[in-house]
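Handout, section B. The chain below has 132 residues.
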Amino acid sequence: MANKSLRKIANSDFIRYRIDNGAPVEYSLVVMHSFPIGGGFIWGFYKGDSITIGYPVQVEDGDNKKLFRNDFPEDYHPTWEVTLNSTNYSADKGRLEITFADNFKSAKGVFQFETADQHTISGSFEITTTDS
């Protein structure tokens, strides 16, 4: 996928990043840094008007990049709510990884969702930051 723009919106209790894909809109992603919830990250994935849920993820530091991923204990099984073509699905498996670099000026990400009825939604993206 071509480069996208990453817009940062500061707020009193969270920072939101929205990936704008241009027209026609294929995918957009919102990553929220929520300080009140243990300083964790909560994110939501969007396709058109469709959304999934978001939940905290772990952060790894090193070499000026941060990796956001949804690694959970084995006994924790989050459910992904995915809407595809106006149909709601509960996805049993899901993965989103985002690697930020250059002091959050660029990022690369991959995602994949697998629904109970064998639907798979996957893709990747590259983003660069812009001031809003």
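Note. The two ends are 22 Å apart (CA to CA). Compare this with the example in section A.
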